[in-house]
């Protein structure tokens, strides 16, 4: 088969790779029908995730058709159309028993495209398939479903739920890429009074408004003054970091009100300064996290019921054979206007 193989920082290739086979009774093998590229994949290529070994197939977001299952798989059969979760879960360890699948101690967590071969390929092996796949209803398209592999549950769990967004809150989302836009979309489920997007790209600020932001401002446009003007000088109730840079994180801690929440989603490859000389007295809660995907089934039901509209998220479409071009377009989003790119058979 063909697959997108990581060759080390700055190196990748769509090339021949060994077909996946069932290696554990709990495995499923899928034919990949639709797959997307994540900002985390770009971080890997920059060298920010050194655990990824050269030779690894990248990718952790896909929709596919089951072609084979191990003897321990009970909930899936060949022919089933499934969403492959970005998180794999053994289901029996201490963390899995509490729904904290991202911290799985039994060989799961974020492993696809990280510590084992991922899904940017024609076929893929999915460990712990019963818990790590979701059968899809016919009414949900591949293109919509693949957005639930990672960005929707990540933004919802690590941003909105960790940030404790509540009705009437002022919410600031720093970074209006796909994760930030998904955070805006899911924050709106809780009826905040204001949602403000911060991003240097005007095109992404316009996209943020289409997804439900009430206002948009660039980092150079004095976001602190904008937030204070809307909150009587207090600051935001919840600030969500969706970039993964020191400057973005430090801006978040400036924008939050005393007693507020900063929810960090971004993948950080460099240290960020925590200004405790300012924050120690403000009773601020700062959360970090890897998605657990415990909300995926709920989000899937909402998508099926029409309560989540993700139709504007995908901006570029490619065949599976065009991975090199898809990465170029996604990685140069400031010029291409790319939000999510989807590659399909």
UniProtKB/TrEMBL annotation:
Domain of life of the organism encoding this protein: Bacteria
SUPFAM superfamilies the record matches: GroES-like, NAD(P)-binding Rossmann-fold domains
Family matches, as SMART domains: PKS_ER
Domain Enoyl reductase (ER), first and last residues per copy: 7-343
InterPro entries linked to this entry: ADH-like_C, ADH-like_N, ADH_Zn_CS, ER, GroES-like_sf, NAD(P)-bd_dom_sf
Pfam family, one: ADH_N
Signal peptide: none
Keywords attached to this entry: Metal-binding, Oxidoreductase, Zinc
Needed co-factor(s): Zn(2+)
Family: Belongs to the zinc-containing alcohol dehydrogenase family.
Protein name listed in UniProt: Zinc-dependent alcohol dehydrogenase family protein
Organism: Catenulispora subtropica
């Amino acid at each position: 088969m063909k697959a997108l193989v990581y060759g080390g920082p700055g190196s990748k290739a769509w090339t021949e790779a060994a077909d996946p086979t069932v290696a554990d009774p709990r495995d499923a093998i899928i034919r990949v029908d639709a797959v997307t590229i994540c900002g985390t994949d770009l971080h890997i290529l920059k060298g920010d995730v050194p655990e990824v070994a050269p030779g690894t197939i990248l990718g952790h977001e896909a929709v596919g058709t089951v072609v084979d299952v191990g003897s321990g798989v009970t909930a899936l059969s060949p022919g089933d159309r499934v969403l492959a979760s970005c998180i794999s879960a053994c289901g029996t360890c201490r963390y899995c028993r509490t729904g904290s699948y991202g911290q799985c101690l039994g060989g799961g967590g974020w492993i696809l495209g990280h510590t084992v071969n991922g899904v940017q390929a024609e076929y893929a092996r999915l460990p712990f398939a019963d818990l790590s796949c979701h059968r899809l209803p016919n009414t949900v398209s591949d293109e919509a479903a693949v957005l639930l592999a990672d960005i929707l549950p990540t933004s919802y769990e690590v941003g909105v739920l960790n940030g404790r967004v509540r009705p009437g809150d002022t919410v600031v989302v720093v970074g209006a890429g796909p994760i930030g836009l998904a955070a805006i979309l899911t924050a709106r489920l809780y009826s905040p009074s204001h949602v403000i997007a911060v991003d240097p790209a005007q095109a992404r600020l316009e996209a943020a408004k289409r997804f439900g932001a009430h206002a948009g401002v660039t980092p150079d446009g004095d976001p602190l003054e904008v937030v204070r003007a809307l909150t009587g000088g207090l600051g935001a109730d919840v600030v969500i970091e969706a970039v993964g840079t020191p400057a973005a994180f430090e801006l978040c801690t400036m924008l939050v009100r005393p007693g507020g929440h900063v929810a960090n989603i971004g993948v950080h490859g460099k240290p960020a300064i925590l200004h405790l000389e300012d924050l120690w007295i403000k009773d601020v809660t700062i959360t970090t996290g890897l998605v657990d995907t415990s909300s995926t089934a709920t989000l899937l039901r909402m998508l099926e019921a029409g309560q989540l509209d993700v139709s504007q998220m995908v901006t570029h479409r490619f065949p599976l054979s065009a991975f090199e071009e898809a990465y170029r377009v996604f990685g140069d989003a400031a010029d291409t206007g790319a939000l999510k790119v989807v590659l399909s058979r």
